[in-house]
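FORM 12-B: Structure-to-Sequence Request
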């Protein structure tokens, strides 16, 4: 199953969601134009409750933490993710590409020390950060989505899911519930 590291290193072959579809594949919604500062809500220290699907109905549950900050007047955003119990750390970097009208999401595993692949394109639609890429697994082509949603000043959620029907339905396989530390 594709995981967050795979998602963020996948080729960005798919365009970001077209206008007319929300993050869950339903109601018509126009995307918000990209702008500096759109990730400022993520700045600060966070506690994270992870749930990662191992098999249908069988979730791996573990804790993590992150420190996040904006740089370059909000045109880039850094996330340092730490999972002490798993001896894991990584860095997410989101950069604004105003000419293309997208944010690009990059991932680096701390043990590898290299940014993996091209950035996954995304933007905000109805208040949710939506990042899509094409991928495949043993069952064929999928769209892989990283979704920032339920955003408040004190909490939010990041989910990863796959769609086998062009984005109409999603199978969520990793859920991270973030709470301000």
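FORM 12-B RESPONSE
SEQUENCE OUT:
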């Amino acid at each position: 199953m594709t995981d967050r590291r795979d998602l963020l290193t996948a080729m960005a072959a798919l365009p970001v969601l077209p206008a007319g579809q929300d993050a869950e594949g339903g109601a018509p919604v126009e995307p918000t134009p990209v702008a500096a500062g759109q990730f400022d809500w993520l700045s600060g220290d966070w506690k994270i409750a992870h749930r990662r699907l191992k098999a249908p109905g069988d979730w791996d549950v573990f804790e993590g933490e992150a420190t996040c900050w904006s740089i370059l007047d909000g045109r880039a955003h850094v996330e340092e993710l730490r999972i002490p119990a798993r001896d894991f750390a990584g860095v997410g970097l989101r950069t604004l590409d105003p000419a293309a009208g997208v944010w690009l999401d990059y991932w680096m595993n701390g043990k590898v020390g290299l940014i993996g692949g091209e950035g996954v394109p995304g933007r905000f639609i109805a208040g949710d950060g939506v990042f899509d890429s094409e991928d495949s697994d043993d069952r064929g082509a999928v769209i892989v989505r990283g979704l920032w949603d339920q955003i408040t000043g004190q909490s939010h959620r990041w989910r990863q899911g796959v769609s086998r029907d062009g984005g109409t339905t999603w199978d969520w396989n990793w859920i991270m519930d973030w709470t301000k530390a």
